[in-house]
Amino acid sequence: MKIGILTGGGDCPGLNPVIRAVVRAAMNDSSEVVGIKYGWKGLLEKDCMPLDLRSISGILPRGGTILGTSRTNPYKKENGVETAKKNFKELGLDALIAVGGEDTLGVATKLFKDGLNTVGVPKTIDNDLGATDFTFGFDTAANIVMECIDRLHTTAESHNRIMVVEVMGRHAGWIAAYSGIAGGADYILVPEIPIDLGELCSSIKKRHERGKNFSIIVVSEGAAFKDKDLQLQEQKLDEFGHVRLGGIGEMLGKLIEEKTGYETRVTVLGHIQRGGSPTAFDRVLGTRFGVKAYELVKAKKFGKMVSLKGNEIVDVSLEEATRALRTLDPKLYDIAKIFFG
Ligand code: F6P
Description:
alpha/beta; Rossmann fold; 7-stranded mixed sheet; 4-stranded parallel sheet; 12 helices; 13 strands; binds 6-O-phosphono-beta-D-fructofuranose
């Protein structure tokens, strides 16, 4: 068999372990794997690289993706779908494994319906894909943020300051909630719940009145005030209709200082959260996903996505997986709230 593999959307730690696992599992069966570069862009331009033992050597601990990535959407390009189908055929592919988040897998779902043999692998640091308990990349990101919160604690404490930490999370507050709970945040703001400034400031004041001289506030980039627009870096939309978020931390920092009178500083963690080496959890999850994706191709089970359910790797339909985003579990936020103030 000849199998194509591509990585699309925002990169995340764990992509290379998936690529390595697909190649190793395929090679054991004497199947061939071709890397398609820069996500769907590579399929449209027939930009490929052969993947063999040499090309995957040493990539397990490396962040990012050796294939490169992009946010190209074939359904937004003139003749995009026809070109994708033509190139799939001309490359002699039997199947295509798409590793990505809601957008990349949304395209894989549509292409499957349009006749291509696709299999999906879920990735995103945001952990917001439906039909899987976790996506790889999330654990690494949450650990990086936790370490940053630990570091912010010591400087906040020394200066009697409020520290606002803006983290990634476009539609879901998984990173904020996990890292906030793990790092002992004093308040966590997520996209799922509108920001209540009065409640936040009175919680900070209460904490300071009982003798604490600093506070750590974690805010997702996608969090917003009720009836107010999201904070954006620019108005431009990408090919999947997404804006560039960012700025809620700065806005909040000013408001908190104004309302409480406590000196406030803001840290925006940005792409630090997506870079670097994957944790053991993400390396193992990526490896298990890669092996399962190959098994699905071998069994000709197309239109499927690999998924973690409990501790089992199973397959679900791509359609089901991309139907709705998985937002933060309110039960987890209830646990976080116990430690507010
Ligand atoms: O989807 C993952 C993500 O990291 C989001 O949390 C964030 O909003 C977005 O990607 C940033 O994308 P880019 O790297 O294109 O600015």
